[in-house]
């Protein structure tokens, strides 16, 4: 393998160590941040995330409370529930578990979140702040991509970055964050379902951020020698194997840097959720 690994576990540890230091400082003041997770219904995938979040929060001493609402909860009832959490002074951060049942528009729920408690940065006000650059709170996976890129120490200025996938939670915020260094940013192209010739974009990419979740979508032979690849899109097979949008082994033979499919973006995303929770707590207290 030619590529160096952007090791998500190493980056996550560095972030968690910083969070632990902040937690110590808050503890001295008698403050223990708390995160409320709201889950509607019984989606198995979101159950898995909830378990992981709880374990990670408790490991650093954050209070984690899961609020499970019945699958037939209406949008109005969910919005009311969120508003109750917004005004509950014992709750510092709120996370909405996705997917929500059909019939609830995720945007209505995200809009209802207080921007001051929105640990995923998905409220329109926090998403808007991304455009201003250097956001304190932002979508966890998008910020995770930026941390991994930063960990390479590579200068991205003027290089060709291609983001594949344009979701509100990953692709779009990644594209905006890549532009945050003003004169030092790469040139950013966003490919999506309507992109006519994905191959031509990938072939000229110095940086590839793949955020789709379709294994084999990007052919390793398209990857330019020395490209930096962040594999966000992952498909988990029933046997537990995880596959990225580009086949890891052949892609890493050509890339200069690559994230592992497991132990790449995932652990950093979790670490950023913890950091966001501590950040919103500090902001609420004016620290
Ligand atoms: P999503 O909402 O399903 O978005 C997928 C995106 O890919 C959409 O913008 C979609 O476009 C686009 N797309 C679909 N087919 C395409 C094609 N053939 N060519 C180019 N673009 C195409 O998913 P998401 O929430 O953004 O997540 C993306 C992936 O990242 C998933 O695999 C997810 O599991 C993974 N993920 C990983 C982490 C982590 O921490 N490791 C966190 C979040 C997400 P349209 O909307 O136009 O169809």
Automatic annotation (TrEMBL):
Q: Which GO terms describe its cellular component?
A: cytosol
User: What is the role of the protein in this entry?
Assistant: Catalyzes the oxidation of 5,10-methylenetetrahydrofolate to 5,10-methenyltetrahydrofolate and then the hydrolysis of 5,10-methenyltetrahydrofolate to 10-formyltetrahydrofolate.
The record, for PANTHER family, names: C-1-TETRAHYDROFOLATE SYNTHASE, CYTOPLASMIC, C-1-TETRAHYDROFOLATE SYNTHASE, CYTOPLASMIC-RELATED
Keyword annotations: Amino-acid biosynthesis, Histidine biosynthesis, Hydrolase, Methionine biosynthesis, Multifunctional enzyme, NADP, One-carbon metabolism, Oxidoreductase, Purine biosynthesis
The molecular function terms of the Gene Ontology recorded here are:
methenyltetrahydrofolate cyclohydrolase activity; methylenetetrahydrofolate dehydrogenase (NADP+) activity
Segments forming domain Tetrahydrofolate dehydrogenase/cyclohydrolase NAD(P)-binding? 139-284
**Per the UniProt entry, what species is this protein from, by scientific name?**
Candidatus Desantisbacteria bacterium CG_4_10_14_0_8_um_filter_48_22
Gene name? folD
| Sequence ranges assigned to domain Tetrahydrofolate dehydrogenase/cyclohydrolase catalytic in this UniProt record | 6-120
Q: Name one GO biological process term.
A: tetrahydrofolate interconversion
In Swiss-Prot or TrEMBL terms, this protein is called Bifunctional protein FolD
